Q: What sequence folds into this?
């Protein structure tokens, strides 16, 4: 089946080579980082995690979003998702690949990476994160590949794959819960020290992952003969809308708790992110835009007349995707470090090599996704002709 | 003030269980005299002004017997078996920011330019309108009894030395994930580019203590005896004696983190 990725139009190959070019530039930047150390990034004593870990966090959510198709399809036998669930699983594979790469580029000594296995430490959340992320990658490869292979042969999904499908549901929840625990378990970072961290992570994940899926499904219909039942897309769009409403609701819980309790430590990071703290306001524009985009997205997706038009639908899900990307992929991590434990403010700005490395990891994700979607589309097109 | 008082009573609650062992101790919130309350209030305001995170750990009650009075160190470190149990008392009001401690630390421990294991914070306070008060506060790793950094490390690269209680690094295990930096409530850790690992204060365990020296480089270099280092398991050590001084408030930084820091501050 893999050989189908090697047959494509000039446009397909052009895109693949473009991605490879971006990846190679990023790889050069990474070699530069390896040689010179983390000092070439914008990270510092006060901001010890930057764009890498922020993006890692976001894409764990995108990966977990696939479960929003797996549950209706396999637990409720919602057959409209039968043809598209594999596209969700393939997003998960690409997203988890990106997550693992973001971790590798973030750590200061990748040569010692295997120490996580050599010195297993059950009281460390990062230890569990390693287990659940690699496990989720394996599960989605097994499930995605085998269900697609069965479709290609026109056979039902083999019985031994079923347990993996059911396992993928709690596992998807686990990857984002454990990732939230990385933050919610440390004392002294008020923005992170919140019991709704994991629920909010899951809510934004179930908004972000499916919104990316909708954009991709609408795109692949333009470049292939594969047709998706519009009702299926509408169902996914409703999922995005509800999940985003829950996400925004939980965010208001954070605002209420901080501002009504009036505990200075809880207010400070929110103040920094949304209003600026002692003249430091480099993220205020982004965070306000993110909030606005979130409301616009909800507004569009909530109105059936708008949601049913593809143009509006794309605007809606793109707004949700960008809103969650800024909120979780930038603000959450950076905001947690400001102010620092001794109440001084160090701001963070990513350096060029750091941004290039992050972009090239996006390109790796896009490449993995392109190849996997090529396989899936070729099978679906055959099915449609048959 | 309310928060500080809540914290104070929480501390007394800890002593409650202690009273079953030593029923001589009569430290109840209602037992505090007005004068003590005022001292506490003043200190509380001062410390809160200095640093919202650093609240008073203990108001030293004036006991009849000196040994019974003051901050109850043995209760604080109960459950630990470190011998010697190294800690430091910082006589904050004596610090003049000469930075000899920082220099000595860098030299002794080969600390690169980009980092520091200890530093001195500076705050301008206004205890009364129009009165400016400049306070210097030395900070370093707090060698917590319950260190968050050790809890989050995925490779056991940072651990509590089973003998001395010092929070140490095993550099060759560190992958540089920087989770300990995020977890530390005291900003005590930095990424050492040369070692490609996180680095931090270890009370000069490898560079001085293991070679028979009795003091850390910073404590030895301090001309004002601000940093009083020693074995807090030994009631006759210098820092232990300081903590028993009557009518002196002892505090730690960010007690709300639950980390049980082992660097104590006082204005002696």
A:
């Amino acid at each position: 089946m893999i050989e189908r990725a090697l047959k494509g139009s000039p446009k397909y190959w052009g895109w693949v080579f473009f991605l490879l070019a971006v990846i190679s530039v990023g790889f050069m930047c990474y070699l530069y980082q390896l040689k010179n150390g983390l000092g070439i990034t914008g990270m510092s004593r006060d901001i010890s995690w930057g764009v890498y870990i922020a993006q890692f966090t976001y894409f764990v959510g995108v990966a977990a979003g696939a479960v929003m198709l797996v549950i209706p399809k396999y637990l409720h036998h919602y057959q409209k998702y039968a043809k598209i669930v594999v596209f969700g699983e393939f997003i998960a594979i690409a997203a988890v690949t990106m997550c693992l790469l973001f971790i590798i580029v973030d750590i200061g000594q990748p040569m010692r990476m295997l120490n996580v296995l050599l010195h297993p430490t059950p009281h460390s959340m990062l230890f569990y994160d390693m287990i659940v992320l690699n496990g989720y990658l394996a599960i989605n490869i097994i499930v995605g590949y085998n269900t697609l292979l069965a479709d290609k042969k026109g056979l039902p999904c083999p019985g031994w794959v079923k347990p993996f499908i059911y396992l993928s549901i709690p596992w998807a929840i686990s990857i984002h819960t454990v990732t939230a625990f990385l933050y919610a378990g440390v004392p002294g970072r008020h923005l992170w020290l919140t019991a709704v961290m994991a629920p909010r992570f899951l809510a934004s994940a179930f908004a972000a992952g499916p919104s990316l899926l909708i954009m991709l499904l609408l795109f692949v219909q333009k470049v292939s003969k594969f047709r998706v039942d519009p009702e299926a897309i509408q169902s996914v769009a409703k999922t995005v809308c509800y999940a985003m409403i829950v996400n925004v609701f939980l965010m208001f819980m954070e605002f209420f708790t901080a501002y009504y309790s009036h505990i200075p430590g809880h207010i400070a990071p929110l103040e920094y992110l949304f209003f600026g703290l002692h003249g430091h306001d480099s993220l205020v524009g982004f965070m306000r835009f993110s909030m606005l985009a979130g409301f616009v997205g909800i507004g569009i997706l909530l109105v059936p007349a708008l949601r049913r038009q593809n143009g509006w639908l794309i605007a809606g899900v793109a707004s949700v995707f960008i809103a969650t990307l800024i909120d979780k992929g930038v603000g959450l991590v950076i905001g947690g470090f400001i102010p620092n434990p001794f109440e001084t403010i160090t701001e963070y700005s990513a350096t060029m090599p750091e941004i290039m490395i992050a972009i090239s990891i996006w390109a790796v994700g896009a490449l993995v996704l392109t190849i996997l979607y090529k396989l899936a589309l070729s099978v679906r097109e055959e099915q449609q002709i048959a | 003030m309310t928060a500080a008082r809540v914290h104070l009573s929480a501390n007394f609650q800890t002593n409650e269980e202690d009273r079953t062992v030593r029923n001589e101790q009569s430290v109840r919130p209602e037992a505090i005299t007005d004068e003590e309350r005022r001292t506490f209030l003043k200190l509380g305001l001062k410390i809160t002004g200095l640093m919202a995170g650093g609240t008073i750990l203990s108001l030293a009650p004036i006991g009849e017997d000196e040994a019974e009075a003051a901050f109850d160190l043995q209760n604080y470190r109960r459950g630990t078996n470190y011998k010697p149990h190294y800690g430091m008392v910082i006589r904050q009001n004596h610090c003049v920011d000469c930075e000899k401690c920082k220099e000595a630390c860098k030299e002794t421990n080969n600390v690169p330019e980009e980092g520091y294991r200890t530093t001195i914070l500076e705050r301008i306070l206004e205890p009364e309108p129009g009165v400016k008060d400049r306070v210097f506060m030395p900070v370093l790793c707090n060698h917590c009894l319950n260190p968050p950094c050790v809890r989050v490390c995925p490779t056991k690269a940072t651990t509590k030395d089973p003998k001395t209680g010092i929070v140490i690094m095993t550099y060759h295990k560190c992958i540089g994930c920087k989770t300990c930096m995020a977890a530390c409530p005291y900003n005590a850790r930095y990424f050492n580019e040369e070692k490609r690992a996180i680095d931090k204060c270890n009370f000069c365990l490898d560079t001085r203590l293991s070679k028979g020296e009795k003091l850390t480089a910073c404590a030895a270099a301090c001309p004002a005896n601000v940093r009083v280092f020693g074995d807090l398991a030994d009631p006759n050590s210098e820092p232990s004696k300081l903590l028993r001084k009557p009518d002196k408030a002892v505090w730690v930084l960010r007690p709300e983190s639950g980390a049980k820091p082992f660097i104590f501050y006082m204005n002696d």
